[in-house]
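> example.struct
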């Protein structure tokens, strides 16, 4: 019996506040694969990421989103998270009064409650803080309040490593990062990519980015050019280098 792809988008059409933005997105990501989506601003890349996570503002007009062969198109964001889908936001939201520690414990309890004892939470968090070079004092701060771009992205990488998703969507995780922060975050994402999920299977990753620099660390298996609300061109890692050198003018519809 043929195994279903880890993640699949079938003919996805989406509108935002009555305006159609996505126009038939098709994508298949197998276990262990990393796909990168590159494209100009305003082409629908962030709309795609929010739609995949189930943001209620984004109306699916047609098509399906499948995780491990299961149709999750109608599921709420928290239900998708429990199925082990993860989204790293381009602009993480600040939540004054909610500490990083409280947020992480609540997230772990919601997504991995059946795997971990409460006594394990602190130990696991401390281990991951060290790997990302984040001081423990970070845990007492209000979530993303007054954080630099690098701090926000390190926190999202920490969340990903703690929640152990099958499939991670990274929406411009490299934005706002200096060279050192980019290296630390990217190397940790690359390490995570190489690990197996709780069933011992490979994980998937969809990296949405403008620049080749992050892809120097997270080597994609497939690169897609996004424009006019759909995928216009696909190829290997060399496609990202071509876009870096030549821009998007050569891609029809971009």
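> example.seq
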């Amino acid at each position: 019996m043929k195994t279903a792809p880890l993640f699949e988008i079938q003919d996805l059409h989406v509108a935002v506040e009555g305006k159609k933005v996505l126009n038939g997105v098709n994508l298949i990501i197998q276990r262990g694969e990393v796909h990168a989506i590159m494209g100009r601003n305003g082409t629908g890349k962030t709309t795609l990421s929010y739609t995949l996570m189930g943001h209620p503002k984004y109306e699916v007009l047609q098509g399906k989103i499948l995780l491990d062969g299961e149709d999750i198109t109608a599921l709420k964001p928290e239900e998708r998270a429990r199925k082990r889908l993860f989204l790293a936001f381009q602009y993480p939201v600040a939540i004054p009064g909610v500490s990083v520690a409280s947020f992480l414990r609540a997230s772990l309890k919601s997504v991995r409650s059946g795997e971990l004892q409460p006594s394990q939470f602190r130990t696991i968090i401390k281990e991951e803080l060290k790997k990302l070079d984040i001081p423990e004092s970070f845990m007492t701060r209000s979530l993303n309040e007054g954080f630099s771009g690098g701090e926000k992205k390190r926190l999202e990488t920490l969340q990903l490593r703690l929640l152990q998703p099958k499939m991670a969507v990274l929406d411009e995780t490299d934005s706002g990062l200096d060279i050192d922060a980019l290296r630390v975050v990217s190397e940790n994402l690359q390490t995570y990519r190489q690990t197996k999920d709780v069933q011992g299977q490979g994980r998937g990753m969809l990296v949405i980015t403008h620049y080749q620099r992050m892809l120097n660390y997270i080597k994609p298996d497939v690169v897609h050019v996004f424009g006019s609300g759909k995928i216009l061109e696909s190829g290997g890692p060399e496609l990202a280098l071509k876009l870096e050198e030549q821009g998007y003018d050569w891609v029809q519809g971009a």
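> remarks
The domain at 7-246 is CATH 3.40.50.300 (Rossmann fold).
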